[in-house]
Amino acid sequence: MPQLSSSSQTTDKDRIEQLLRNPQPGEIVDQWPPCRICAAQFNRNRPTLRYCRSCEKAYCEGEHGGYGAAALCLACIFKSIWGTPLG
Ligand SMILES: [Zn+2]
Ligand SMILES: [Zn+2]
Protein backbone atom coordinates (compact mmCIF):
# COMPACT_ATOMS: atom_id res chain seq x y z
CA MET A 1 0.00 0.00 0.00
CA PRO A 2 1.31 3.46 -0.80
CA GLN A 3 1.76 5.64 2.22
CA LEU A 4 0.09 8.98 1.89
CA SER A 5 1.42 11.83 3.92
CA SER A 6 -1.04 14.62 4.48
CA SER A 7 1.58 17.03 5.72
CA SER A 8 3.88 17.05 2.70
CA GLN A 9 3.03 18.81 -0.52
CA THR A 10 1.92 16.61 -3.39
CA THR A 11 4.04 17.01 -6.47
CA ASP A 12 3.00 16.34 -10.05
CA LYS A 13 5.23 13.27 -9.84
CA ASP A 14 3.21 11.90 -6.92
CA ARG A 15 -0.03 12.54 -8.73
CA ILE A 16 1.09 11.00 -12.00
CA GLU A 17 2.59 7.92 -10.35
CA GLN A 18 -0.63 7.42 -8.45
CA LEU A 19 -2.64 7.69 -11.68
CA LEU A 20 -0.33 5.19 -13.39
CA ARG A 21 -0.54 2.76 -10.45
CA ASN A 22 -4.32 2.89 -10.35
CA PRO A 23 -5.54 3.10 -13.94
CA GLN A 24 -9.00 4.59 -14.23
CA PRO A 25 -11.72 3.22 -16.48
CA GLY A 26 -11.24 5.24 -19.64
CA GLU A 27 -9.01 8.25 -19.64
CA ILE A 28 -10.01 10.75 -17.04
CA VAL A 29 -7.95 13.60 -18.37
CA ASP A 30 -9.49 15.94 -15.80
CA GLN A 31 -7.30 14.28 -13.15
CA TRP A 32 -4.09 14.69 -15.09
CA PRO A 33 -1.83 17.55 -14.04
CA PRO A 34 -1.28 20.18 -16.73
CA CYS A 35 2.06 20.85 -18.38
CA ARG A 36 3.60 23.54 -16.15
CA ILE A 37 5.51 25.13 -19.00
CA CYS A 38 2.38 25.44 -21.15
CA ALA A 39 0.58 26.98 -18.20
CA ALA A 40 3.37 29.41 -17.33
CA GLN A 41 4.48 30.41 -20.82
CA PHE A 42 1.30 30.17 -22.89
CA ASN A 43 -1.53 30.21 -20.35
CA ARG A 44 -2.65 26.92 -21.86
CA ASN A 45 -4.04 23.81 -20.17
CA ARG A 46 -2.51 20.66 -21.63
CA PRO A 47 -2.93 17.57 -19.39
CA THR A 48 -0.04 15.14 -19.35
CA LEU A 49 1.22 12.01 -17.63
CA ARG A 50 4.89 12.89 -18.10
CA TYR A 51 6.87 14.45 -15.30
CA CYS A 52 10.40 15.76 -14.90
CA ARG A 53 12.90 13.61 -12.99
CA SER A 54 14.57 16.70 -11.60
CA CYS A 55 11.90 19.23 -10.57
CA GLU A 56 9.04 16.67 -10.52
CA LYS A 57 6.74 18.97 -12.45
CA ALA A 58 4.47 17.83 -15.26
CA TYR A 59 5.36 18.67 -18.86
CA CYS A 60 4.11 17.66 -22.30
CA GLU A 61 6.43 15.07 -23.77
CA GLY A 62 8.40 16.06 -26.83
CA GLU A 63 7.38 19.71 -26.88
CA HIS A 64 8.46 20.85 -23.42
CA GLY A 65 10.83 18.08 -22.44
CA GLY A 66 12.51 14.88 -23.51
CA TYR A 67 11.22 11.37 -24.08
CA GLY A 68 11.84 8.35 -21.90
CA ALA A 69 11.82 7.41 -18.25
CA ALA A 70 14.75 9.59 -17.19
CA ALA A 71 13.79 12.65 -19.23
CA LEU A 72 13.89 16.23 -18.00
CA CYS A 73 11.54 19.11 -18.69
CA LEU A 74 12.69 21.97 -20.87
CA ALA A 75 13.23 24.23 -17.87
CA CYS A 76 15.68 21.78 -16.30
CA ILE A 77 17.39 21.13 -19.65
CA PHE A 78 17.91 24.90 -20.05
CA LYS A 79 19.13 25.12 -16.47
CA SER A 80 21.66 22.32 -16.99
CA ILE A 81 23.02 23.96 -20.16
CA TRP A 82 23.07 27.64 -19.23
CA GLY A 83 22.71 27.56 -15.47
CA THR A 84 19.54 29.62 -15.55
CA PRO A 85 15.93 28.49 -15.53
CA LEU A 86 13.68 29.03 -18.52
CA GLY A 87 11.72 32.25 -18.30
ZN1 LIG B 1 3.79 21.99 -22.60
ZN1 LIG C 1 12.20 19.97 -14.59
How would you describe this structure to a colleague?
This protein is mainly α. It contains three helices and no strands. It has one domain (12-21, 29-82). The longest helix has 10 residues, at 12-21. The termini are far apart. The protein has helices spanning 12-21, 36-42, 74-82. Bound molecules: zinc ion (2 copies). Residues 35, 37-38, 46, 59-60, 63-64 line the site of one zinc ion.
Concise overview:
This protein has helices spanning 12-21, 36-42, 74-82. It has 87 residues and is mainly α.
> Which shape, going by the Cα principal axes?
globular
Extended strand count: 0
Bound molecules: zinc ion
* SSE succession: HHH
Number of helices: 3
Strand content: under 5%
What is the helix fraction of residues, given as a range?
25-40%
Question: Low-confidence runs (pLDDT<50, min 5 residues)?
Answer: none
pLDDT averaged residue by residue = 85
Return the structural class.
Answer: mainly alpha
What is the first-to-last residue Cα distance? 39 Å
The tally of structural domains comes to 1
The description of the largest β-sheet is: none
The radius of gyration computed from the alpha-carbon positions, rounded to a whole number of angstroms, is: 14 Å
Write the layout of secondary structure elements.
Blueprint: H1 12-21, H2 36-42, H3 74-82
Bound molecules: zinc ion (2 copies).
Residues 35, 37-38, 46, 59-60, 63-64 line the site of one zinc ion (ZN).
Jot down its keywords.
mainly alpha, 30% helix, binds zinc ion
